[in-house]
Design goal:
Layout (H helix, E strand, L loop, with lengths): L22 E4 L2 E9 L8 E6 L10 E2 L2 E2 L9 E4 L8 E2 H9 L16 H11 L6 E3 L5 E3 L5 H5 L5 E3 L8 H8 L7 E3 L23 E3 L7 H7 L8 E3 L20 E3 L21 E3 L27 E3 L8 H7 L7 E3 L12 H11 L5 E2 L2 E2 L2 H14 L1 H6 L8 H6 L3 H8 L15 H4 E7 L9 E6 L4 H12 L6 E6 L8 E3 L16 E6 L1
Parallel strand pairs: 7-9, 8-10, 10-11, 11-12, 12-13, 13-14, 14-15, 15-16, 16-17, 17-18, 20-24
Antiparallel strand pairs: 1-2, 2-3, 3-6, 4-5, 18-19, 20-21, 22-23, 22-24
């Protein structure tokens, strides 16, 4: 067996038995050592590695009918020689590698290599003790180094980035952070950290921590809750692209949290309400989680829910929300002022995206920013007046000024308050509903992939009023290719041999005269 260019019979360095569980890198890929030992019939020592990126692997930890270790992915592991991997460097070595160039302007260029120690001493005395941000992402930090030296060398670090490191456990992390008394922000994205045996032993290591980034760390929500007591002062937690599905109620944990990002996780949407147990939560990011519905059963239509009392900013971009009743439910949030919802399939009766925005503003009473655009007083007034006119006939048929039906109030919970604000609409100013048949607005489009011969065409029905940006969002969910990398064009049976470029994300399919039965060609770099 030969892997990574290793040959049989080559002398290999001694690797202690406790290397199992340590983190290593090889050719830009990181993984965890799961096995250290012989792999007959070859000679010499091998490391069995489970790679973070399963595409780097070759098998599941078995060879020749013998299982040496296990992997979560059936092809996530491989055997490599110890000489082929890097085990990283300690924190202080990484700091020197990143920051010691700053002394070049004060040091003689002719200084010999032998004086490198002097260079380090001058640097330490000149600047490291004043370092407030240590940006060591990708530097393969594996531990603290000499005991107590971090506290002496970089005592004032407040922002520490150790993302994509070779730290193996939370014990490794805390051995560094416990020496940084002023640390407030810690970035640990794209790591694989073993959970601590005794969480309480690490609380002092994170006593000042307010911001924690754990994106892409393969964590579950129960694991987050298990670790949460270590972060007693945490206010901002980012958990993008993990393995979070069902959310459990955070009992006596994360109670100081003000901002939570769980985007790009396949959430069980009914469990989202568990997060209402975070009383100080102001910002919640639920984008790309598959969300299609949310219900606050404790509040009647038009009333405020007791859940999420502090929530001011909600991000539900690129989800599966299609029903306006979901927006009405979100209108029950008592403090919601910032709302991001692009990339969903909310449509108005006239098929106009601008009308969709008007409806959102009219339905969400306190909205100050919609998709990061400020809602000015004039816009709100126009949206609310148009809303009154738009559904005035329904209101009259449902009972009008006497007492509208329960069904009407459930569908338009703000309507009566808007009438109180502006007065009832007169029959002459009611806006007649424009004829709109959904089937006449839907286009059957075939997406084809000319640069990927093995990928089958995908047929979809989409609205002619859909902007190209949303089409790319749909393709991202189908292909997992970033929308920014997608390049679109189209062909039509009526104009054979001609390919038309789709060059603006903000235009609609209708703008490009795309018709039912056309093909959209999808390419990416």
């Amino acid at each position: 067996m030969r892997e990574n260019g290793a040959s049989m019979g080559v002398d290999q360095p001694e690797v202690p038995e406790h290397s199992a569980g340590r983190r290593v890198s090889c050719d830009g890929e990181r993984g965890t050592v799961r096995y250290v030992g012989l792999v007959p019939p070859t000679a010499g020592l091998w490391l069995g590695v489970e790679w973070d990126n399963p595409e780097r692997g070759k098998h599941d930890g078995s060879h020749g009918g013998v299982r040496y270790f296990t992997c979560r992915h059936p092809e996530g592991g491989s055997f490599v020689r110890p000489a082929k991997v890097s085990s990283g460097v300690d924190y202080l070595t990484a700091v020197r590698q990143v920051y010691e160039f700053e002394t070049e302007t004060v040091l003689n260029e002719d200084i010999s290599i032998a004086s490198k120690k002097l260079k380090w001493i001058r640097l330490k005395g000149r600047g490291f003790e004043n370092l407030q941000s240590a940006l060591l992402g990708g530097c393969e930090v594996n531990g603290p180094g000499a005991d107590g030296e971090i506290r002496e060398t970089t005592p004032y670090v407040q922002w520490l980035d150790m993302s994509a490191s070779l730290l193996s456990s939370w014990d490794d992390v805390s051995s560094i952070t416990r020496q940084l008394d002023e640390l407030e922000t810690l970035q640990l994205g794209n790591n694989r950290l073993r959970l601590p045996c005794d969480v309480s032993a690490h609380c002092q290591a994170f006593c000042s921590l307010k911001v924690l980034v754990l994106n892409g760390c393969d964590l579950t929500w129960p694991q987050i809750l298990q670790c949460a007591p270590m972060w007693p002062q945490l206010e901002d937690l980012s958990l993008e692209k993990n393995d979070i599905t069902e959310l459990q109620r955070p009992e006596a944990a994360l109670q100081s949290l003000k901002s939570l990002n769980v985007s790009c996780n396949p959430l069980e949407q009914r469990s989202v309400l568990s997060l209402a147990a975070l009383p100080r939560l102001e910002h919640l990011n639920l984008s790309e989680t598959g969300l299609s519905d949310i219900r606050f059963g404790d509040a009647a239509p038009g009333s405020h829910t007791a859940m999420f009392p502090s929530l001011t900013k909600l991000n539900v971009k690129d989800n599966n929300i299609t029903e306006w009743c979901v927006v009405d439910e979100l209108g029950k949030l008592p403090s919601l002022t910032h709302f991001l919802c692009s990339g969903n399939q909310l449509v108005s009766s006239d098929g106009n995206p601008k009308t969709v925005n008007q409806l959102l503003v009219a339905k969400l009473e306190k909205l100050a920013f919609l998709n990061n655009c400020e809602v000015h007083h004039k816009e709100r007034r126009g949206a609310e007046l148009d809303y009154i006119k738009m559904f005035g006939e329904e209101w009259l048929k449902a009972g009008g000024g006497s007492q509208p039906s329960t069904q009407f109030i459930a569908q338009h919970p703000r309507y009566l308050r808007l009438i109180d604000k502006y007065g009832a609409p007169e029959e002459g100013e009611l806006r007649k509903p424009e004829p709109f048949a959904l089937k006449n607005q839907l286009l059957k489009i075939t997406f084809v992939f000319p640069d990927d011969a093995d990928r089958k065409p995908i047929e979809k029905k989409v609205l002619a009023s859909m902007v190209v940006q949303k089409v790319k969002g749909l393709l991202y969910r189908l292909l997992k290719v970033p929308a920014a990398d997608l390049k679109l064009s189209y062909t039509s049976p009526t104009k054979l041999g001609t390919e038309f470029e789709i060059d603006s994300d903000l235009k609609t399919l209708q703008f490009y005269s795309i018709q039912d039965g056309d093909q959209v060609l999808v390419r990416w770099s």
